[in-house]
Design brief:
The protein has 313 residues and is an alpha/beta fold. The chain folds into two domains: 2-115 and 240-312, FAD/NAD(P)-binding domain (3-Layer(bba) Sandwich); 131-236, FAD/NAD(P)-binding domain (3-Layer(bba) Sandwich). The protein is 23% helix and 27% strand. The protein is built from six helices and 17 strands. It has helices spanning 11-22, 59-72, 135-138, 154-164, 183-190, 291-312, and strands at residues 2-7, 28-31, 76-78, 82-88, 91-96, 101-109, 113-115, 131-132, 146-150, 169-173, 195-198, 201-209, 212-220, 226-230, 234-236, 240-242, 277-279. Helix 1 (11-22) runs parallel beside helix 6 and helix 4 packs parallel to helix 5 (183-190).
């Protein structure tokens, strides 16, 4: 019987494992198919994590020390894909690929979310080389330079506003004639002089060379006219796919409360409505989608697991 099963090996899962094992739990397993690290391992440079400011270090370098530290305290790495989590009495049954099962007193799910791709030509080619899905992470690279934002919801406009304080100009491209963002958000954006709204338009193609993105071709959906814009930053905000599949039962429903967008509902202690089931990182509601926040979630969830098990004893 595991004291705690942690599903997902990104910053949230690793931090949960560190705090759980260092906090005294002796039987904690981290389920992650590959080497732990998460999406941050794909980053070529890390600038916004406190205490880490080495420009020659990649996301992979950044997470390498996390792995060593977490496993040092006894965290077990189960390199297996989790298929489902089920509450069975007072315990949980974790089923992995192939049908093998593990019993656990508690579960922390840290499977995250993945930004949706818009599907325009060149998006994959220049992803990480000018095309980004995180203004907080990458906006500073374009200080005093023009950038393009694709999207029409609250997130797109909030990120555009954030970028407007860093970049010279922000061009927001939206396929509809009206934005879906909340009126206060839209009003704030429209009052910012260096934010330019381009409606009824889509990104036709991201263009560049071996050095990365150099510009975008914007197509007006009403006239089919294509306008080329030179810039080296394109931020795509068209939603996220939440990796919540392990929380579905055999009927396709969720074992805990989720929002209409599939984000798991938790309180400030990372508790779900199911006793003993905790979340951490981008899978939860209102996640900032930052490494430092995910790590904070993981520590909170692990400390709550320790308290929960102490109350059961």
């Amino acid at each position: 019987m595991l004291d705690c099963a942690i599903i997902g090996g990104g910053p949230a899962g690793l931090t949960a494992g560190l705090y759980a094992t260092r906090g005294g739990l002796e039987n904690v397993a981290l389920f992650e198919m590959g080497m732990p690290g998460g999406q941050i391992t794909q980053s070529s440079e890390i600038e916004n994590y406190p205490g880490f400011f080495e420009h020659d270090k990649t996301g992979m370098d950044f997470m390498d020390t996390w792995q060593k530290q977490c496993f040092h305290f006894g965290l077990k790495h189960e390199m297996k894909k989790v298929e489902s989590v089920e509450k069975t009495g007072e315990h949980f049954t974790v089923t992995v690929e192939g049908g093998e099962t593990y019993e656990a007193m508690t579960v922390i799910t840290c499977t995250g979310s993945v930004p949706k791709r818009a599907g325009f030509k060149g998006e994959d080619t220049y992803f990480g080389k000018g095309v980004s899905t995180c203004a907080t992470c990458d906006g500073f690279f374009y200080k005093n330079k023009p950038v393009t934002v694709l999207g029409g919801g609250d997130t797109a406009l909030e990120e555009a506003f954030f970028l407007s304080n860093i970049c010279s100009d922000v061009y927001v491209v939206h396929r509809r004639g009206e934005f879906r963002a909340a009126p206060p958000t839209l009003d704030r954006v429209m009052r910012k002089e260096n934010i330019h709204l381009i409606t009824d338009s889509v990104i036709e193609e991201a263009v560049g060379d071996a050095m990365g993105l150099s510009g975008v071709d914007i197509k007006n959906t009403k006239t089919n006219e294509i306008t080329h814009m030179d810039n080296t930053g394109l931020f795509v905000f068209v939603g996220h796919n939440v990796n919540n599949g392990v929380l579905k039962d055999d009927k396709g429903g969720f074992i805990c409360d989720v929002t209409d967008w599939g984000q798991v509902v938790v309180d400030l202690s990372m508790k779900t409505n199911v006793p003993g089931l905790f979340m951490a990182g981008d899978i939860r509601i209102e996640a900032p989608k930052q490494v430092v926040s995910a790590a904070g979630d993981g520590s909170i969830a692990a400390l709550q697991v320790i308290s929960y098990l102490q109350e059961l004893a």
